[in-house]
């Protein structure tokens, strides 16, 4: 999604304002944040006029599921307003937050953040999120540019990029040394180096032409 699309979405207005406010809160019961635990957030959201409040009682760190947020988003209808005590209760990063607000605006749903005093149903609130959307786009471009510059600098220093080889040059040399001894089979060499036979064939291609010695006569008779 480009920035022009972001701004178009943010400019959308609810067609039939319902006036219904739905609250969402997130936080651990055992480790409340400076916005309070879930029950503190519930009280603040009810005081703000929310008809219903959804609460996730885990921090949501590390990509943990937020089932109550999913339920809250599913319950919102055009003309509703999603209310949070603070913006970081809704998203953990600026791109995530802008994407979520974009989705809400596309559905004709507003968003209010009590502590920041933001309200996307007002011209001033929409303007703030237009700035956020532009900043998010700028940060994405910086990340791409920084990654590209970092890769170029690594190549200039002669660094190998991508996955490391399965066998080091020393191990390849060791494999060739063992290959010179007829008692060592391909399987035994691979086992000693801790790799598969296909990996060994890839790094030591001369193994492909190796002849397997016939067993001695008494071994065949046995």
Automatic annotation (TrEMBL):
It holds the Pfam family HTH_7. Residues 20-158 form the Resolvase/invertase-type recombinase catalytic domain. Keywords: DNA integration, DNA recombination, DNA-binding. Residues 18-39 are annotated as: Disordered. SUPFAM superfamilies: Homeodomain-like, Resolvase-like. Belongs to the site-specific recombinase resolvase family. This is Recombinase family protein. It comes from Actinomycetospora endophytica.
């Amino acid at each position: 999604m480009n920035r022009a699309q972001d701004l178009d979405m943010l400019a959308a207005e609810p067609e039939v304002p319902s006036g219904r406010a739905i609250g969402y809160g997130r936080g651990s019961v055992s480790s409340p944040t400076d916005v309070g635990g879930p029950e503190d957030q519930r009280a603040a959201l009810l005081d703000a006029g929310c008809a219903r409040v959804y609460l996730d009682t885990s921090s949501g760190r590390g990509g943990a599921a937020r089932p109550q947020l999913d339920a809250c988003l599913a319950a919102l209808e055009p003309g509703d307003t999603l209310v949070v005590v603070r913006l970081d209760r809704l998203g953990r990063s600026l791109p995530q937050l802008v994407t979520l607000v974009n989705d809400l605006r596309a559905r004709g749903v507003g968003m209010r953040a009590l502590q920041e005093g933001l309200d996307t149903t007002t011209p001033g609130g929409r303007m703030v999120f237009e700035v956020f959307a532009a900043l998010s786009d700028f940060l994405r471009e910086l990340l791409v540019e920084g990654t590209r510059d970092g890769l170029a600098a690594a190549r200039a220093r002669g660094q190998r990029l991508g996955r490391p080889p399965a066998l080091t040059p020393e191990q390849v040399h060791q494999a060739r040394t063992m290959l010179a001894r007829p008692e060592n089979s391909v399987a035994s060499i691979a086992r000693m180096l801790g790799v598969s036979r296909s990996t060994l064939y890839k790094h030591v291609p001369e193994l492909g032409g190796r002849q397997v010695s016939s067993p001695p006569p008494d071994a065949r008779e046995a």
